[in-house]
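Subject: sequence -> structure tokens, single chain

Hey, anyone have a minute? Need the predicted structure for the following. Not urgent.
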Amino acid sequence: MGDRPPIRDRTLILRILVPGLETRLRDKMKEVEDSQTENNNISGNNNNPSSAANSTKETLLELEGVTCEATQEGSTLFHFHCDGATYPARLVNLPCPIELHKTHDHAMYFKCVDIAQMLIVYEDSMALDEADAIPKTEGYPSYYHSGLTPPLKRVVERRFALR
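Reply:
Had a minute. Here:
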């Protein structure tokens, strides 16, 4: 694996900054959910075949035509491929881990995973260069400057500046 920081637990947030790509991915996910529901109703089992298991590229989403591969050893840059188009992406650490909870009845919730990283997909390399031009907090260069909600905007600068 080399010096490249690993994708922790293979659970991350995918942030899409490309207009139109988000809707295509949502449509693909809906198609997969619908086909799994139909297969489960017809066969009565919950086996999910994975055709991407034999791929040499690292599969982040099990969607047909969607792959993500690292550009080089020791880099947080990725190539995000969707329907033949390639977009630059960067893997960043979130300022603090986020707990993801699930529920079946909206009364009892259970923790299923901690999310610590986010893959940001940019429209082109110019947009990636503009994002990289934003000054990073000294001592925390791999951290994304903000959290996921408005109260955590620029949280790394505010909370970690005094340390």
